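In practice, a research group might receive sequence data for several interacting partners and want a quick structural hypothesis before committing to experiments. The following worked case mirrors that situation: the sequences arrive first, and a predicted assembly follows.
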Amino acid sequence: MLKVTFRFEHGDDREIFAAEQENLLEVARKANVAIDAPCSGNGSCGKCRVRLVEGELDSPKSRHISDEEYAQGWRLACNSRILSDVVIAVPDIASAYKSRMKTADLSTGEEVRIFNEAKASVEAADIHFINSFLSATVSLDAPSLDDTMPDNERLSRALCAELDVDEVRIPHSVLLHLPSTLRESGWSVRCCGRQDGNIFELMTVSSAADEAPMCGVAIDIGTTTVTAVLTDLETGALLAKGSTGNGQIRYGADVINRIIESTRPGGKKRLQDAILKETLEPLMRAMYAQANISPERVLSICVAANTTMNHLFVGTDADPVRTEPYIPAFFSWDGLMARDLNLPANAQAQIILAPNIGSYVGGDITAGTLMSMIWNRDELSLFIDLGTNGEIVFGNRDFLMSCACSAGPAFEGGDISCGMRATDGAIEACTIDPETMEPSFRIIGPEGQKPVGLCGSGIIDVIAELFHTGIISAKGQFVREGRRISQDANGFDCYVLAFAEESESGRDVTINIVDIDNFIRAKGAIFSAICTLLKSLDMDVSCVEHMYVAGGIGSGINMRNSVRIGMFPDIELDRFTYIGNSSLAGAYAMVMSDQARDKVEELAQSMTYVELSTTPGYMDEFMAACFLPHTNAELFPSLAE
Amino acid sequence: MLKVTFRFEHGDDREIFAAEQENLLEVARKANVAIDAPCSGNGSCGKCRVRLVEGELDSPKSRHISDEEYAQGWRLACNSRILSDVVIAVPDIASAYKSRMKTADLSTGEEVRIFNEAKASVEAADIHFINSFLSATVSLDAPSLDDTMPDNERLSRALCAELDVDEVRIPHSVLLHLPSTLRESGWSVRCCGRQDGNIFELMTVSSAADEAPMCGVAIDIGTTTVTAVLTDLETGALLAKGSTGNGQIRYGADVINRIIESTRPGGKKRLQDAILKETLEPLMRAMYAQANISPERVLSICVAANTTMNHLFVGTDADPVRTEPYIPAFFSWDGLMARDLNLPANAQAQIILAPNIGSYVGGDITAGTLMSMIWNRDELSLFIDLGTNGEIVFGNRDFLMSCACSAGPAFEGGDISCGMRATDGAIEACTIDPETMEPSFRIIGPEGQKPVGLCGSGIIDVIAELFHTGIISAKGQFVREGRRISQDANGFDCYVLAFAEESESGRDVTINIVDIDNFIRAKGAIFSAICTLLKSLDMDVSCVEHMYVAGGIGSGINMRNSVRIGMFPDIELDRFTYIGNSSLAGAYAMVMSDQARDKVEELAQSMTYVELSTTPGYMDEFMAACFLPHTNAELFPSLAE
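A structural hypothesis for the assembly, expressed as tokens:
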């Protein structure tokens, strides 16, 4: 066996043994060294760049590696075979899945305000935070030789009287500790559980002095990022909030590559473990620790995720979602328990899944649609969730239509040579001086952070500014000259955002014509999806009265620039509303409110799903949208000024 | 660390490392070397004899080891501390828990006959083998671009139509493989599950060609032996039968010692693992293999066990069962699932527990009472289950009374110097020539098997014969002399059943006055319990019209000798019926028949439990019964002849 040592920028070597000729990316995965591979290792994206420090690899040259870089040891992990003991440097930009788990600081009140507003907005639509969980404190007579009723019956009788129910169901998890809990608490206990008609399903029994709340967990499983909140099931109070990267990312940046990976031997298990064991379990435990809550006190969980994420989470075959005729295992399904997935929660906790409505419109969108409130308005609105996929819902209180388009990873920095996720060093906003063509940035990270690359909102700004300043044409070709217009290592025309000496990595941060072309196709997919959906109703973009934009990608998004590049319809800027993570807010509403859950089911049932890939005219719309802003300038009247 | 090597008679060394001064019995337990320790290691029973072959132990002498034996290396494992690397020979008689698992040969028809008779007997009382499990085969339309209903909904709709139900519940275990099963079977599938009103709970989905039966498992968890059957839930056919030793035995022969062990750190888990992982799981898997059934096809399990076994099986605190006021965690409880205990079965399979009615009258007795049929007769009958505990039920169709007495391990060879379980080498029946005082035996095992010791039924015979031939007095003292009347290594008067040269072990097989005294107390406990129970009804033994004897101990039992020693009431011999393992037969009826389950619950509810330890007069009855046959000879008129 050969020894492979992965060396990270901030220390923390990891060693693993590998066979001769083994693929370096596969070995990295085995070692839990996450290297960004949005294309799932087929050599097309060029993101899995690593540097050979010692030893020998068999790596063909690639268009993603210049001769100079190759000489410095740069290789693509996905097309490298191991020939000897090697030491491999993994640059930060490539180690996509650094466990960037963080819990939010609730003391500022900002997060609390967001969820209070979410609650207020659904309550304004007569959807109340009422659920079937309740707790009761009972004092039992201690048993004696004259009163030898067994523990379970003693407790059940008291609870029936206290709660006015006919039956108390006691699961194994409760019975297990019932004798000791009753005796240690002096026969005064607090019981938490779920009422279902005249049956009370007991979920926890603890000392009467225990005041810990009954908790729910709401989770948004994004393709890239997973976000969750811990909430008090009685009050809706936010107890903790956390987020982390989706551990599946090392098996591909988009859902298609992950489904393909899941069909390989052991793949379903690998994908499921990546989301359950590597991502959700630590995230949930971190929230429980922050709020000082034991897992058994978590009585309900709601997950909002796209259809593929739902399938990989559950562990069932996702391949039929991807292949014609695109049939998921489920849209709505209420048979899932936390214990089925070994998630840290009460043994009886159910996992509510926000319903999917199509192969590419999932629970994140149905939950998000609830929060967009477009179903409760007279005006015709577009709700768009801008992630790796773009999902679009259009309608009002009378009807809802939805579709999805594959925008690809461009909004998250994939398929862009200097693209990156919205982490430290990412340029998230940009303006370019029309005269000097010099850029000004906002960079994520601490004071003095140098640029590393471009994240989604930064790319939108850069392209809008390049076009606005006449540096590039409507087709994305460079038409001006200057010190920042150059050619990159691969000989592609590019704009230099930061020269090597200004950048964190010591390499130029650039955007080249291939990147611009990739991005134009991504934004074209979004806009053409909107047009096609509207056309199916005999409408056009002029009918859109309001636009609600959601998604992690959207947080730094410049709406005006999004219109300028022709991604969003040209409506007045005050008619755009950024609504944040509507998927998470929807899951929060669903875990808190039985009415919210019913409403989301109702929305899902009533929503018409349009499958773009089989809709005539979509390709024509797409081709027409692959210009800046569009081949039909009349669609963007405000830009004529 | 020191190396401890356990050497078994038939090879199969086992090695483990131990700390200096560690207790040898504890180390043996860690190594999964089961050494008989009915007293749970307090030095009183003398059963954990092992032989030091090499190395050094710190072992005080014991009354259980003669000087000569000590010189040969014999030690009690429970009071030996390890001082060096040691090699320990574990004699067969001490390795109580050899995994003697066996599955029954069903081809002889004998076992099939027993269960057919059990079925016939309950059906004669209008209790029918009808349950809520059913299977259906459905053919679905394959999905297409025009028919994109998801898999779960497609299947649910077809099943609702086929079974005329309103709702189909699909659990995670089924959804997990649903997409592949539907596609691999060409959309024709067989579905098994449970109907509950207008809801069908789906439990398995397989190809329509799959003809494997839906199965149930019935288990009798005895303190010493565990027996189980696998049955076809539709027909009641016996598919497999197996038995094995209860792996908990190394933590004590009786329930009290096991409860005490369970209260030690980690004890509950140890006791539960011993019954679940070491005993039931291999036993169940052996049955499944014999019948070629996959675990997921096991849809229901019924367990009949005494109250303590039930608690240790479930994993809840058993200590309150043992200590005043003797309160179990449950009598009846229907919240247990196979998955709660990780038993190999369908993920949705429930475990039905035959209800307990007192701390010492458990589900084995309520299930057994069903099979005794005493509740369906006019005549007053006694039903007795003779195991480590003796449980007694008395009554008829109008009432039922029950009690339990601790007979101790004597019936299973415990507390008897040459006692052993009913395995190879055990004398199971005996007569003694009144003139020559020479014994004749029936010995368990192959042709030519030499005696090793005495099992329960053999002890009854030996004592009855010793008394009948005038060798011992009514108080158990030796009153005749001869070559077989001797003194054992400890200087106690004894009768030599087999001299060293005639025995398997090369040691005398004897019964001494201490053994006889122990046994008289055991049989006295049984008889006095019967008398006390009857007295609580203002009755006496003359009221007993029929007696049903159950239990593993009973299989070789000589009823006449049982009367002669004063253990059973003196009624005509044809009024005794040996009914075998009524606990297992009752569990079999309960897993097959909802009506049987209801009937057992009804019997349990109606049965009055008499706690002997708090009943005045019981001690007097007990003292009076500690003679052969009894201080009051009038109770045994037939013996006067």
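Before designing any experiment, note the following. The first helix of chain B runs from residue 24 to 30. The mean pLDDT of chain B is 91.
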